[in-house]
Amino acid sequence: xxxxxxxxxxxxxxxxxxxxxxxxxxxxxxxxxxxxxxxxxxxxxxxxxxxxxxxxxxxxxxxxxxxxxxxxxxxxxxxxxxxxxxxxxxxxxxxxxxxxxxxxxxxxxxxxxxxxxxxxxxxxxxxxxxxxxxxxxxxxxxxxxxxxxxxxxxxxxxxxxxxxxxxxxxxxxxxxxxxxxxxxxxxxxxxxxxxxxxxxxxxxxxxxxxxxxxxxxxxxxxxxxxxxxxxxxxxxxxxxxxxxxxxxxxxxxxxxxxxxxxxxxxxxxxxxxxxxxxxxxxxxxxxxxxxxxxxxxxxxxxxxxxxxxxxxxxx
Length: 315
Description:
With 315 residues, the chain is α/β, with parallel strands linked by helices. The protein has two domains: 4-120 and 260-314, 3-Layer(aba) Sandwich (D-Maltodextrin-Binding Protein, domain 2), CATH 3.40.190.10; 123-257, D-Maltodextrin-Binding Protein, domain 2. The protein contains ten helices and ten strands.
């Protein structure tokens, strides 16, 4: 791998001497503004994408158009249709999409043009209740009213997997589907018993809720956690630390997936290398989940083929 100084020289030279050629190969964008699909403004994807936008605009000749979306399932479909150059998605959704399996929205032929760029940080699976509720474990949620996340989202997929691993089928609970902000409003108002939220802690909407209302976190541990991890190799052990949220004074065992940057084969390799280099040569400029984002770990949990531009950087 070339060192950072030389790489920046190469990138700058490419920008000056060959920008027209690169811009003509953006794979659906055109010009020097790149499309980047994030997620809900209430989650982690959106503010992190804002960090990336600032870095890319300072370090390259490109700008980013960051769009709020329904997150992983929506984003991987947009990549497959080549409607965006880059997107943030969960690694489990990337696997399902690439293989055409796993969830109904992605069943069928695999999305063979979707490519990985880098994994970023653990997306911790939170199961939130009101404080002092009767729900201490996933098994306790049978018969409850549960917000499993936006319809078709990665959060909903994870929620259904975890509940099923605990022996709770679709007919064993009242399922509500809405975004994180709506879910926390429902919890506050007592309209639901529990909500699944997937994101790097502390998730903004959960933190906001905990600052005004006492909350509880249901652990995913023991046999249920073992079953979840046995059935899905991309899911890992995780812990929400004490004091991540106001009033939660003990560590809470759970699981996580990985957030990742993805692209598609229609995006030029030089462009992907330029964007990858900008981000991972300047991780000190990131303030969202910065402790986890590093070139040395950027292929951990990568479930799909790497884009050749990202491979050129990491090799």
